[in-house]
Amino acid sequence: MTALLGLLRKEAYHILRDRRTLTVLLLLPVIQVIIFGYAIRTDVENVRMVIVDPSPDHLTTEMRNRLSAGRVFRIVAVVPRTAPLEEFFQTGRAQAALVFEPRFAERRRVLLITDATEPNTAATIQAYVFNVLREKGLPNGVLQIVPQARLRFNPTAESKNLFVPGLMTFVLTIISS
Questions:
Q1: Longest dimension (CA), the chain
Q2: 99 pairs with which residues across the strands?
Q3: CB contact at 8 A, 49 and 21
Q4: H or E element in which residue 64 lies
Q5: What percent of the chain has pLDDT over 70?
Q6: Cα–Cα distance measured from residue 93 to residue 99, given in angstroms and rounded to the nearest whole number
Q7: Handedness of CA 61, 62, 68, 73 (dihedral sign)
Q8: For the residues 77-93, what does the mean pLDDT come to?
Q9: How many other CB atoms are there within 10 angstroms of residue 147's CB atom?
Q10: Between the CA of residue 123 and those of 36, 66, 153, what are the distances in Å?
Q11: Three-state secondary structure string covering 118-138
Q12: What is the tens place of the pLDDT at every residue in 145-167?
């Protein structure tokens, strides 16, 4: 224990004597916390959404209005078929798609498709949509939500495709400090 205390004392003297080391030890973590505080955001705003509404009626219109009423969703297109969805996701013009089943007022079934290139954001988007659709105001019955997971990025679900880019950034940050 005395050897450890001696080592700590020696390092403390060295750090206090060398101003550059003291600056790196004190200033760099503060700068990183400030940068990460602004860079790492979990807020979900202006989600680009495509609505597939094959047979528009008063209920689907009400749902679209409810989704676009806040700052969370921005409806970029309303289409009658699911065919153009792939292009919307491939070009990045959509982060989510809400597919109303034909004769929605009778069946009350809806499919939600999210872009999962950022899995946490996709899960947050799903939670927002489910909450908006489940909240009060749905007349005559219960809405049936059919969740389906479709992996468009990393379809093999290999963890290296998610962890390696983040690990590279982490290692470069540690090396630079």
A1: 79
A2: 52, 111
A3: no
A4: helix 58-68
A5: 80
A6: 16
A7: negative
A8: 91
A9: 8
A10: 22, 20, 14
A11: CHHHHHHHHHHHHHHHHCCCC
A12: 655 555 566 566 566 666 677 77
